[in-house]
Description:
Layout: H1 2-19, H2 25-28, H3 43-52, H4 55-78, H5 89-99, H6 102-106, H7 112-129, H8 135-147
Helix pairs in contact: 4-5, 4-8, 5-7, 7-8
Amino acid sequence: MSxxxxxxxxxxxxxxxxxxxxxxxxxxxxxxxYENDGSVVSLQHQKELGLNMNEEQxxxxxxxxxxxxxxxxxxxxxxxxxxxxDPDWSIWYASHLLENGFEKLLDAxxxxxxxxxxxxxxxxxxxxxxxxxxxERYYADFFVGRYLK
Length: 149
């Protein structure tokens, strides 16, 4: 029974991502903790990365942020009947991003499943560390920090 509750809670948190104002997510999901085991890029690392970024990386970061913003707009149109609510948002986003050259921007070969995982990971990280941040730029920092060093 305990495992069922945990799995249900995980699904609920994913569903909440699309239905609750992101600024207030911390109120609905208190106590989420993330280990700093190397799989999550820390805010401090992202700040340091920003200071050490060359012009090409800055331009790519802006392009990635723009692509993420357009992906959100396109997703909202595709799911207009539900006002953009989609518990499986990361699957749709991953497909859309890959179809629109995300791999080329990162100089990386990404499996769709890996991108889905990374989108969910960065979403949880952003909600935990910077819930009021402009998510597109936060995500762009995350991906630039992982792939464009």
